[in-house]
Amino acid sequence: MFKKSFTLALALALALTLTFALALHAETPAISDILKKLEEIMEITSDISSKVVLTQNKIEQGVKIIEMIYFRRDLDDSFLIVITAPEAEKGNGYLRVGGNFWMYRRNTRTFQHINRDESIGGTDAKADDFEKRKITELYAGTADNKGKEIINEEMLGKIPVYKFEVKAIVHDVDYPKKVYWVKKDDYLPLKEQSYSLSGTLMQTAYFLNYTQINSKYVAVKHIYIDEFEKGNKTIVEISNISTNKLDDKIFTKAYLENLSK
Amino acid sequence: MRLLFTISLRNLFRQKRRNILLGIAIAVGVMILVVARSFSAGITDILFNKIVVRVAGHISVAFNEEGKLYRTIFRDRERILTMVKNNLHDVREIEEALGIFNRVIGNGKSDNSILVGIDLSQNLSDETRKEIEESFRMLTGDFTDLGKEGLENPVILSEEKAKYLRVGKGDTLRIRFTNVYGNNETARLNVAGIVKNDNIFMQSVIFSELKNVKRLMGFKEYEVANLNITINNPTKNAVPMADKLHSVLKPGLAVISGKIRFGNTEKDAAVLGLNSDETSQKLIGSHFEIVEGNKDKIFSKDSILMSKDLAEKIKIRSGDKFELIYKNKFEDRHTVLPYRVTAIFSEKSMEGKDILLMNDEKFYRAYYANLPEANANAYIPEKDNPLYPVFATEWILLDRTSTTEEFQKKLRDISNKKWKGATVDVRTMYEIASDILKLENVLNIITLSAVLILFFIILIGVINTLRMTIKERTREIGTIRSIGMQKRDVRNTFLLESLFLGLFASIAGILMAFGAIHLLSKLTFELKDNPLSILLVNGHLYFMPTIADIISILMLILCIVAATAYFPARAAANLSPSSALRYHD
């Protein structure tokens, strides 16, 4: 009797586990779907302007706060950045229109052609970072030896998330491997770890606050922690976001010069 | 003539005090000139043969892929090296120039640095080896330690960098950098040696063996980074040799000779890239007939056009998927790429040919990722084919430039025009290192100023001395003219006297110059954090007197003396004997 009951209980438990596993498997979306969804809810397809504050904390250089105003024209991905603080860099700016990318120096009132790979305001940010590139064109989900995608459900603090790994499908990405923690309910990324080509953890990013603009989500506060050079971190805060159509005159040298006065 | 020499020499020693004073003035001038010229030649030698060569080479061949300045790669090392070696003569060295800007972490300290590759397998000339040993004095370890087996990425760094990073021989460094594809990468380096170098710009350099640097950067052994070429007589030969190299680097059409697999059918085909610029698109539009498929998509990024003949042979339709298989030139393997036919075309000059045409971006991605093995039988359009310009070439050869401004514009173009193919650029030190070379011009101006000052010293001195001499010897001139000496001989006597003075004074000046050079070379300058330290060799001033320079200085002085003495000497010769005899001071 006991044996029979035990066998029945075991079968039931197995059935339940299997059902639960299947249900769980059925509910776990494919990484490609998550990436598409993520792109869909975060891609802003209109002109945009905002105030950006970068707080860069470096162990050997201390804290550097850079405030800037950012304008981007969606039509041709042109952008203009004017630095408003600190005083030493106030008025300096960057303008990219078509294939041309200039750096403006207020002290000398000169425009200088620069490369897309150069840093903005001496920070770790590059002009490339302000270009729009779709994540689905750059990365795809990583699969294990059996071809199963590496995606798990777990808790990030108290928030249920999908944790998954992506690898670059093109050569020219900063990080060939990334791991994402994405909220289960709305697919917003909360954490991102970026790895070097040889697999060293280079950077961890936390997306702390989001705001909704025209049904799209914008991360308004994120922290980037340098995992290679411990102690370095950058906090990015975005405010005064507007998606109103921007005048074409904004994306001109004259406007940047005028704004810098 | 012998008599004239005797008279001139005797006359020279008649007014000892005056001639000695003038001789000293000329000797000091010559000494300054020789020292200045030797210093200038030394600086030129440092600039051309120690700095410019290391920074940019006398001539360099630079490569870029996809318009990204950091992607300095050419996929066929052997081919480009053969082209350079076979077409350039009088070459001293050809070296791969590869440096990685990186963030380096030592023991609790971090800093920026440049990891530079040194090719230990290259047979360095004795001159270069000596120069390296003089410039980089090993404090611990040896340069050959860079090739040590069993040590992960052995490196040698400067004393200053080692102190700052708090590391010594045997310690480990970690670096973060961006590889040739733009990916973030990290590596561990082992300190194999520490070197002392006076050049401030070299203090942030970390040396490693070239093959290690290439591996870290993502290069395969058959790929190559920019080439720096050192030649003999660079000031004369750099530009013509660069022009010659440019003319032989003209690319042919890029073609992938492979098989098209559709279902169970396989067929040999030639794959060509189609340039996506406006002119090419117009030409394609006017020559190609799209027999099947979407005409609007033929210029899209993913466009794959198949010739009608090939499509009929393998029975493929537009929209169908197929595979392109080709043998790689390197690594003894095949590349298999899946594609989809965008449209099927027909074109007169390509009738009967099995051809696949791809948008250039897509084509170059496949072509460069795995260079195809050459096939002599593959179809390649003839140069007289009107469609020849629409096909992608093996690389894009950039125009030669002659000034820094033109060169900088070219660099901007590489970044802005986003050429799909790899660019190849032949440069000389005159475009890249013009700022360094301007320093040489400044030094030449200083030398010229010394020459002018010297010229005035001699001019005034010789004219004054001769005038006084002629005045004193007027009656003597009258006497020797009366007893039959010809005008020409009188003139030559005075000329020879001045030339002897110039010659003796110059020889004394040259000897004094060698003494001064010896003393100045003994001085030690501690210019640790001063950019001027690049002009020193081991903390000492560097002079390079040459026989040619000394002979030319001597000839210059004698010419100046002869020119300045000629007119007073002629005036003396033209004196009438009777008036000269009547002359009273």
Total domains of chain B, how many?
A: 4
Spatial extent as radius of gyration of chain A: 23 Å
Shape, per Cα inertia axes of chain B: elongated
Number of domains in the coordinates of chain A? 1
Q: How do the helices and strands follow one another from N- to C-terminus of chain A?
A: HHEEEEEEHEEEEEEEEH
- Which protein chains are joined by the largest interface, and how many residues does each one contribute? A-B, 24 and 25 residues
Most strands sheet of chain A: 14 strands, antiparallel
- Multimerization state: heterodimer
CA-CA gap between termini of chain B: 31 Å
**Coarse structural class of chain B:** alpha+beta
Instruction: Write down the overall mean pLDDT of chain B.
Output: 87
CATH topology assignment of chain A: outer membrane lipoprotein receptor (LolB), chain A
The strand order across the widest sheet of chain B is: 13-17-14-18-12-11-15-16
Q: How does the SSE layout of this entry go?
A:
The complex is a heterodimer of chains A (261) and B (585).
Chain A: H1 2-27, H2 31-42, E1 48-58, E2 62-73, E3 78-85, E4 93-97, E5 100-105, E6 110-113, H3 135-138, E7 139-141, E8 151-156, E9 159-168, E10 177-183, E11 189-195, E12 201-213, E13 216-226, E14 233-242, H4 253-259
Antiparallel strand pairs in A: 1-2, 1-14, 2-3, 3-4, 4-5, 5-6, 7-9, 8-9, 9-10, 10-11, 11-12, 12-13, 13-14
Chain B: H1 2-12, H2 16-55, E1 59-64, H3 77-87, E2 91-96, E3 99-105, E4 110-118, H4 126-135, E5 137-140, E6 154-158, H5 159-165, E7 172-178, E8 184-196, E9 205-209, H6 210-217, E10 227-231, H7 234-248, E11 255-262, E12 265-274, H8 278-287, E13 289-293, E14 304-307, H9 308-314, E15 321-327, E16 334-340, E17 343-346, E18 355-359, H10 360-369, E19 396-397, H11 404-416, E20 423-428, H12 429-432, H13 434-472, H14 474-482, H15 487-522, H16 547-573, H17 577-582
Parallel strand pairs in B: 4-9, 6-8, 12-18, 14-17, 19-20
Antiparallel strand pairs in B: 1-10, 1-20, 2-10, 3-4, 3-7, 5-8, 6-9, 7-8, 11-12, 11-15, 13-17, 14-18, 15-16
Helix pairs in contact in B: 1-15, 2-13, 2-15, 2-16, 13-14, 13-16, 15-16
